[in-house]
Each structure stands twice: as C-alpha cells, then as structure tokens.
Batch of 2 targets.
Target 1
Amino acid sequence: MSRTFDVTPAPAVVLDYLKDFANAEEWDPGTQRCVQSAPGPVAVGTTWHNASKLYFIRTELEYRLDRLEPDRVTFVGTNTTATSTDDIAVRAEGAGSRVTYTADVEFNGLAKLGAPLMQLLFSRLAGDTETSLRDALNRLGTDAGP
C-alpha cells in the first residue's frame, strides 16, 4: 500500500510527530495500543509494542525505528507471522508538506497462505489510514495536537 497526500504543517513538524510511533494510536485505524518499550528520547533503535485489530484479526508486533532522516522515517514491526515495514517520506510542498506513506507486510511460514486475503483487507484499510493520518497531521500546529 502506498498513498501520497498533502498536509498544511511544515516537514519538520510532520516528522517530529511521526517519529514517535506511539502516535499511531491517533492515526492508524487498526492500532488499539502502541507503547514505547523503554523510556527515553525517540531515536533510531527505539522500540514500541503495538497491539492492533484488523477486522477480525488481533495481532501484536514489536516495532523498531529503523530510519530517522530529515525527510523520512521508517519503522519495522515483527512477530512470528509477519514483518511490517512502514516508510514515510515527507518533503516540502508549498507552505506545507507532501507525505508518501508506504506500508509493506510480508507474511512468514504458514501465514503466507493467508497473504492474498490479508492484502485485500489492507487495501480496503488504506483509504481509512490515509484519511486518519492526513487529519492528524493537519491538526498539528492548530491546537495542542491530535
């Protein structure tokens, strides 16, 4: 899944918000809980425990901040059945930002058998994720946050 959309905040504001994966509770429709695993500043190597529900499937992944650059943030989540990579690129667009969010899920072992169904479900969720993320980012700077 990959979506590109524009938001009003500047790239630095967007990336500062996105680098903390705990904020996924506010913008990812599937995330029910996302908690940083150890206290401290967010940096490459920081991890979060994420509990999600996608339609009828509940899952928990350990996410790690793999890349944090001035124009990109990448998280990799793993459990025994899947590896999920969330890559978010942000660049200046007018007075705001253009965001390209790409999510890629690879299934492991027997879970590969359900991959076609899961890809269909993820495709349906993509529009909801784009809307939620766009709304959360557009609220930045207009109040105390989403």
Target 2
Amino acid sequence: MKRFSFPLDRVADFRRIQARIEEAKLEALYAQLRGFDEKEAILLQARAESESKVLSAPAVTGPELAALDRFRRFTGAERLRLQRQRAECRQKISAQMQVVTVKRRDVRLLEKLKERRLESWKADFARETDAQADEAYLAKWCGAGWQPAGRL
C-alpha cells in the first residue's frame, strides 16, 4: 500500500500562513491600543506635574495661571481625542478577532479532515496488512503439501 499523503497539505499550509498574518495584525492593533494608553498616562503625568509646579510656587502670576489653564484645556481635548482613537481601535480589534477566529477555524477544519483521512488510511492499511498475512499463511500451508478439503 502506498504511504499516506494528504492532497490538501499545501492548502492547509496556506491557511496557516493566512491565520498567522491575521494574528500579527491583531497583535499590532493591541500594540496600538497600548500606545494610546501610554500616551494618555504621559499626558496626565505632565498635567499633574505642571499643576503641582505652578500651584506650589510661592507667587503665581496671571500669565502662568493662563498658561496652566490652556494646558489643562489642551490635555482635556487630547484625552478626548485619545479616547476616540482608543474606541476606534477597540472596534478594529473586535473585527480583527472575528477574522482571526474564521482563519483559525479554517485551519482546524483542514487539520480535522487530515486526521480523519489518516485514521481511514490506517484502517485500510491494517486491513491490507491482515489480508497479506492471511494470504502468506495460506500460501505457507499450500506450499507445504497441505491441500484444501475436496482436492485429492
């Protein structure tokens, strides 16, 4: 019997590559989301330091308070922009997760099909091996002078 081969191996390899590509895209989106979080943390830290610096000074001038107010408004607007970007990124992540799920399902489908075909091949191989063993056993008896009943 010929050795086992799965004709869809190249297709399965291609689908694995596609799944890895989509997983890499998902990881990039997660990295982008972490980047937004880091930017917001840096922004909040800068705002807190500025407020602390200005408000802890012994004498605060009007222009310094005005600058602090403009910086507060800027950081507030920047936080809103980052929150919108974060929300968009989360939507992209959700959509990408669905794509990854489909690609992984496609890979698993071919892997299960290959497993079934391999089990079927193993069963056929075992049957063929048993049949050959039976034939060899009978040939041994026939070759040793044994005659089936009714042949004299």
